[in-house]
Write a structure and sequence with these properties.
Length: about 400
Amino acid sequence: MANLESLPPADFYDYESLLSGPERAKLAQLREFLAAEVLPHAVHWWNDAEFPAHILPKLAALELSAPDRGRFSHLFSGLVVAEMTRADTSLATFFLVHHDLFVQALHDFGTAEQKARVLPDALALRSTGAFALTEPEHGSDVAGGMVTTARRVEDDGGVHWVVNGAKRWIGNGTFCDHMLLWARDADTRQVRGFILDATLPGVTRTKIEHKIALRTVQNAHIELDNVRIAERDRFAGIGSFGDTNKLLLGSRISVAWQAVGQQLAAFDVARAYALERLQFGRPLARFQLIQGQLVKMLGNATASLGMMVRIAGLQDRGGEADATMGQVALAKAHTTAAMRETVALGRSILGGNGIVTDFAMAKIFADAEAILTYEGSHEINTLIAGRAITGVSAIV
């Protein structure tokens, strides 16, 4: 029986060869870090619902933040997300929330003063950020249904905003230093963005318990009771929810890349198990049905990877040829549907061992459910793509 080192990689069509030499070297550096610092411990963190804050300085040292990745191709950026997810979906989710949402928002919408004050520590992960958009009663419809309000007040202390409301499912929310907080202007009804110091009076953060996915991610329920935010912490570049489309488009692309990484992780574990596990006196890999399942898993992962490589190509071209929201929604819907089938096949290959985290597959299987849902549920992304190809909206 062949050993794993002699077998083809999960990137069966060698999409990685499309990267430049420096990009391949940087990706190899990331893999070394993940193999040494993350993979041996990820299941333990997940079981204990414990976030590994101690590795953040080492993660920052890789210089893979959203702005730093700007010197590389979009394909490289996508493969970074896929590789992180392949090692641990929770760590990849932390990375996306902090860098691709909070840090990127500072770059896109922050004033020079805000960038100088907040960005250096955020880039170095000496401080952490969150993205506070979703509300207890509003997820997919939060753009129009947002009930958290911000009222502009001017008094002897100058101009500030008084915020009331609640946010839910906020990744990094229990420990972050700052949040990009979204609230509706009580006077104009436009959606505005703020840099919220998470330690301000009136901010209550409660960890969401009993999750079956992304247990390492510290999701929080946030209560905002007459929280006073200084005018200098309002994102001047955000005048409405529509201003954030580019930011949310990029985040949705990243989550589709997570669906790729999740499938690669499932294939890695399932193939290794099939080669090692003996039943009826021979390895599982010698059974036709098992080979069929592995091939289906690899086919799903490869097709998803191919779709995302094309999305990255559109991003690199930019301008009018840049990826559209409809194209991105189709990619997110399709790759996550394929992912759900792939992780289910992997769990099946492991039999009873597929439902305990000792063998990693149970964690991969469970975490896939979160990827299916966040950054637009599978159903919402399907309808966005449907609107793009018919010109008719079935959402409202």
